[in-house]
Structures are given as C-alpha cells and as structure tokens.
Design brief:
357 residues, mainly beta, Methylamine Dehydrogenase, Chain H, seven-stranded antiparallel β-sheet, four-stranded antiparallel β-sheet, 48% strand, globular, disordered N terminus
Amino acid sequence: MKKGFLLAIICICFSCKLKTKSDNPETTTTTPRSGFTKVIADTLLTEKISIRAIAADSNRIWYAGNNGKYGYVTLDKSKTFTGHVAKDDLKLEFRSIAQTKEHVFILSIGNPGLLYRISKDGKHTALVYAEKGEKVFYDSMQFWNDKEGIAVGDPVENCFSLIITRDGGESWTKIKCGALPEIAAGEAFFAASNTNIIIKDTHTWIVSGGKKSNVFYSPDKGMTWKTYATPIVQGEAMTGIFSAAFYDEMTGFAVGGNYEKPEQNFGNKISTADGGKTWKRIAEHEGFGYGSCVQFFPDSKGQELLTVGASGVFYSADQGTSWRKIADYKDLFTLRFMDSKTAVAAGNNKIIRFRFQ
C-alpha cells in the first residue's frame, strides 16, 4: 500500500532487552514456551538497510531491502553475499522475495514495478517483469512450486493487481479483472513483511487492509477466487490485516491493527478454524499492538505463534489466546522459521536469529 509505506519510514530505535554492546550480540532470556526454558538471540547481519522480505533456503536466509540491495547470510555466519540492482536513476525498494530451487525473485514497490530473477550463485540477474503506471505498487510474492508463482499488488482498476507465472518465473502474466473479485474503494495491501500471500499446497490466501480488510481465497492456485470478510479493525487507510499465516488448510491467524496507533492492542488479532471462511477476534486488550508479521511454529499442531511488530517480539502457546513478550526489539518487520527451534527476523539495519531451547 502506498500511503505510509512508499515514503521512507522513520524507525525509532528502542533499547532492547536482548541487545548487548558487542558487534555480534548473543544473550539469553527466559520464555514460557512449553518444553523450552530459554531463547538465545544473536545477530546474523548488521548493515544500513531496511529489510521487509526474507526467505529461508537451507542454511541461508535470503533478504531483499531498500536502495536496490539484496543478498543472503548463512546461519553459521561463515558466508555472506550482497547484491545490488541499479535501474536508471530509480531508488529501488524490494519488499517481496520468493524462491524456486535454482532462483530467487525480488519485486520492487512503486512505479515502475520491477521483478528480477537471480540465480542462487549470484552470477545472473534478469528483469522478467515490468509494469508502469501511477498506481502500480506490488506488495507480496510467493511460489506454489518450482514452476508456478504469484504476486499481488494494490488495485489499478476495480480489482487487485495479480501476476502469475507458470514457467518457473521466466514470464509473468497479469490477470484481468474479469477473473478476479472486485475490491472496495480504499482497500489495498500492505508491503509490511511479504506475508500478504499464504500458500498451502494448492490453497492460497491473500489478505487486504485499509477501508476494507478481507481474505481472498483460491483453492486451485489462483484459477478461481472467493472473498471472505474479517472482523479486524478497518475503515482507515492504515488499518486492517498486515500479515497472516496458516498452519494447515484450516487453521489460520492474522495480525495488523492500526499502524498509526501502534499500541492499540484490540481488534488487531483474528483467527480462523475453517480455512478463512469465518474469523473471530482474539486476545482483545492483551499482548501486542500493531503487528507486522506472524508465523506458526513448525510441528506445534497449530498451537504456537510468534509475532514481530511495534510492541516487540511476542509468543503464544495457545493459538493466540494469550501472549508473552520474549524480546523487546521494536524495529523488526518480518520473520521466518528455519525449523521448529530456530526463527530468523529482519528489520531496520539487522537480521536476528532466535533459538528456542
């Protein structure tokens, strides 16, 4: 979504309980997670960059950020790779990243929208899709498999923008509005953490925000769509769903709220048990305020959740009914799990690893 996100976001650095003065901080804090007694946090990357899109690739974390930057870091810190995309005099900002077995794809926000395919050895970069227009603004991208991928953007007509590849990302086709649900006036998407699109097998969910906040669901990899309403706070430009996750085809969770009222901790968390058809508010007036990203713990039977956002890093052991802060970082924007005991989060000038023990 353009408003508030196309402009550079000024991030105020707060003191963090897990931070130390060393260049490679590592410290421990207790956590209430069942079967775990502590969380160890350490820094994988420190650089002048805003990162809102990461992808887990074996022992590597790929990232995409502002100023045309992208790259990866390894979990053992033995290797890093930094790339840069330059296009005319544009200041490219990448808020979406996705991958296949051989390539990484990064997609810029704003006009023009530029989608690049990068070989994982870093030797080859190709522009595979470009779209110009005053309203062009792509927010999120994912792949179903090594051949089929999808990216979503704000509406330029009376539907959301949707591009799909069926050939491994070599070419992308924009879907016509006649094949997509209509979108309400003032409804769009947030390029907050590259988690607007959620994929489980052939099932796909896309979450929106703004004046309306809906879930668009496709059972067949983007061929057909249905629209489901949500009860999350909405009605203003910077309200609605900013991130969602599904543990399986039925169990889902979404966070967001009011970006302009980051401490407001009601109407900002919703859950579903029927594949996104119906949602309910949960943990009202409890836990965190504005949430930028939410993810399920792998192998947790859909019980355990982790979020990052303006209030810090929060954990739930009961499907979001109750929450406990486990770290005070307030400038992390996105996160992914490497396995059931390791999560990686990225944000303002950093990539942090959390190890649950």
